Amino acid sequence: MNIDDTTNSDLKGPELNSRVYTTIKDQKGWSALHLACQNGHIEVIKLLIDVGMNINDTTNSGSTPLHKACQEDQKGWSASHVACQNGHIEVVKLLIDVGMNINDTTNSGSTPLHKACQKGHYETVKFLLDLNGQALNSRVNTTVKNDKGWSAFHLACRNGHKEVIKLFIDVGMNIDDTTNSDLNGPELNSRVYTTIKDQKG
């Protein structure tokens, strides 16, 4: 089958008459891959990548298909940041499979793990931490801090995501880790340290 075969009718307006031709875009610079990603069609995305579509291709406004998969493009965020913030674990897996840097930082220093922890996406955080296997930080660096000195663990604590906090404790995260900013008043700078109690409470 010719993947560039055209229809009698125009599928996407006068500029586009091929469903998968790898270089055709609409007036806004969107390719078929951008559209598939925006609509979350994982199998179609895989097919288009397999036939050679460029995953780094940009629209006229600078968005890649993977940004469209994640529905947002802002402040130095990669597609991985947005997928993690939205808890789109299947998209996160796909992004890792195609080689995206899971420790990439935004303009403010946040990693995708920061974004997942901030929103309390348990399954996404678990998936990222599980990538490390038995060696903490071997693949996903849990110690990266943003420009306020906050780690992903701090964000999970700040937002009260108990199940996510337990994940970090289970993998050996330092619960006394401190931030650059003062979370608990002038005397203390660790959110977790103030909650530690002994067996008697």
TrEMBL record:
Keywords: ANK repeat, Repeat. PROSITE patterns: ANK_REP_REGION (PS50297), ANK_REPEAT (PS50088). SMART domains: ANK (SM00248). The keyword Repeat applies. It comes from the Eukaryota. InterPro entries: Ankyrin_rpt (IPR002110), Ankyrin_rpt-contain_sf (IPR036770). ANK repeats lie at residues 28-60, 75-107, 108-130, 148-180. Pfam families: Ank, Ank_2. This is Uncharacterized protein. Signal peptide: none annotated. The keyword Thylakoid does not apply. It comes from Mytilus edulis.
